[in-house]
Amino acid sequence: MILKEVKFIQNENEKQFPFTLPVLKDFKELSFRKPITILVGENGSGKSTFLEGIAAASDLPVSRGVEISQDSDLVHAQKLANALKLSWIQKTKNGFFLRAEDFISFVNRIKKMKQDAEEELKNIEFEYKNKSALAKGLASMPHARTLAELKHLYNEGLDVRSHGEGFLDYFQARIRPRGLYLLDEPETPLSPMRQLSLISIILDDVKEDSQFIIITHSPIIMALPDADIYSFDVQPPQLIQYEEVEHVQITKNFLESPQSFLRHL
């Protein structure tokens, strides 16, 4: 365990977003008792904003490589972070905050880095054609190193893989032991089989003393072994069992009798 508890200490007179979220109305504290904590609830329940606030208070980077304080889309997260008090068992600098949309931004960034490095190497070949091999090698070195590092981390490139395969490559390449990982709907680009692969990666890293706090609508991800599940459909959020999660119940009932649902639509 790394993060032990989060407490809400905001002045009661605050009337602006994100403090108007229902989840914060009676919220006092939330404890993390296990290496994996799942946050569930309907859209608009405030769980994503809550996780963003923890990420900002933890000084974790957004997975695409920028600080939350530098992300214009997350100004509200910094406001909430100032109203949260985090209690640590062991503070770590390893980890990140991941939203599904950050993966697309990161792929585009990596693609541009690769294209820029390849273009620079072409320019060097032309500009240094009459110079020594040593001079050409020294000029080429940083760009060649960039390409080598990208290949080491992501093989031939995240942009040439399927969306789900690339996401798993990206996630596994950036994960480190003893890290805190805050994941917002990581199942979005993943098929059910790839979700099982993600579960395997998470469980392997838990063995390396990492902690995960995950928002999900997927009954597959919710089934992570020995995870605590907090429902944000009640205020304050409450611990519930897997079988009590509404998403699980609806999915189970639908799969048992899809037509009984569809005929009413």
Count the strands?
11
Shape: globular
Strand order, biggest sheet?
Answer: 7-8-9-3-10-11
Oligomerization status of the protein chains: single chain
| Count of all domains | 2
Give the second-level CATH assignment, the architecture of the largest domain. Answer: 3-Layer(aba) Sandwich
Radius of gyration: 22 Å
Whole-number mean pLDDT: 84
- β-sheet strand percentage: 15-25%
Low-confidence stretches: none
Return the CATH class of the largest domain. Alpha Beta
Cα-to-Cα separation, first versus last residue = 45 Å
InterPro entries: AAA+_ATPase, ATPase_AAA_core, P-loop_NTPase, Rad50/SbcC_AAA, Siderophore_ABC-ATPase
Protein name: AAA family ATPase
Pfam family, one: AAA_23
Domain AAA+ ATPase: 33-239
Topology, element by element:
Blueprint: E1 3-8, E2 29-31, E3 36-40, H1 47-57, E4 61-62, E5 66-67, H2 75-81, E6 84-88, E7 95-99, H3 100-127, H4 133-154, H5 163-174, E8 180-184, H6 192-206, E9 211-215, H7 219-222, E10 228-231, E11 238-240, H8 246-256, H9 258-262
Parallel strand pairs: 3-9, 3-10, 7-8, 8-9
Antiparallel strand pairs: 1-2, 1-6, 4-5, 10-11
Helix pairs in contact: 1-2, 3-4, 5-6
Subcellular location: Cell membrane
Protein name: AAA family ATPase
Pfam family, one: AAA_21
